[in-house]
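Thanks for the sequence, V.! I ran Threonine synthase right away. Repeating your input here for the record:
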Amino acid sequence: MHYVSTRGSGVRADFRSVVLSGLADDGGLYVPESLPVFTPEQIASWSWLPFDELLWRVVSPYVGTSIDENVLRELLSDSYRHFNHRAICPLQQIGHNEWVLQLFHGPTQSSKDFAAQLQSRLVAHFLGEVGAQALIVGATNGDTGLAALEAFADCPGARMSMLYPRNGLPAETLAALQTANPEQVQLFPVDGSFDDCQTLVSRLFRDWPLEGVIPICFNSTNWVGVLAQIVLYFHAALQLGGGIRPVGFSVPAASFAEIYAGFIAQKMGLPINQVIISTNRNDALHQFIHRNRYSTQVSNRTLSPSMDFSLFSNLERFIWELYGRDGGATKTLMEHFEDCGELSIGNPQWLSARVLFDSYAVDESQVRDEVIRLFRETGSAVDPHTAVGALAGRMHRRSLGAPMVTFGQIAPAKSAALLATLGVWQGEVPVVPEVHAMPPYLAKGDLEALRRALLLAWQGGA
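Predicted structure:
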């Protein structure tokens, strides 16, 4: 298996190079040169498989010969060993043919654990092979950073730098980030939004300051962030339809990696009849799917904070697919977007996207009502992100005969304070921890200051 860049420069890399990367050398994102495709009979024969074996069937074609089969099996099995549910991601029924895929049984109680746990093991394996040092870099508005901190805490040869908006993180999230060992993890608050943090990270990878240090992105610009999500679609579809019955999915837009993974799973042969992109008030993706207008926006704070942004890096991979894997066309579109913050694709490409994808934007009052409704009708509390997906799935599904699966990305306990105010939480509400004084923040867009800070941090901890 080889990988190429979405921007078509002729870059060709193996799986190891992709794992140990931030962006491709031309600034694009790595994508598989070809996709494995399975027959309906092959997929149906996987219905009885435990999660780690299913994971190996789905992931191994993307690894190719980069890792010995027995070693890969061990790495995959170990990745989710510390999840606290024996099914790893169990299904919960919330209505007639309506289900929630619980993705929050990992160490930090969010779906981000799936990518982080897998990536940390792959990175540790490959760094051991090449004998190099690496800096794991990324941006977070909460759960992604917490998952990365936990997963990479003991990764030999790797340290971490993390950007986050200095205003906008919940106090409990910020306090959790501040527990990181300062000799291992450097925190960089940014005077801007999560989108501004993402932009700085992308620019940093294109102008890397640390010679001899491998830059690795913990955000889903790294292909592993997509790869870890593909198996989730297979797992749910096999549980509900044996891999034969069509299944629909509603995915709260906390990452385009999870959405794009559904597109890839369908191309691999899985019978997915619909993917609903579920957004809150920050509806950039809804506007793209609904009206073919994608633009960066000022983010609003909502009840579902992991969705409060508008810059989705993996959209570039999807556009590359829509344009027939034309790197030149993708490069032109993405450079235009980077210059002016707006993007529309050709009408044939947009109509092609609409074959699989629908979208629905949910406002705050609807989120509150859905949380209360689900509690009254099922006896179970769900977090606001899941409520966004569940409502969108019910309102916009194409077929009542096909199961509709909502990605439940965050544990209800992480929203205990809010759920308690709505009368749907019966457990303990944690006390908000004390937040220490933050380090000096970076000005929005100040790449040179970030480069200098990274150099100082690396030299000081070397």
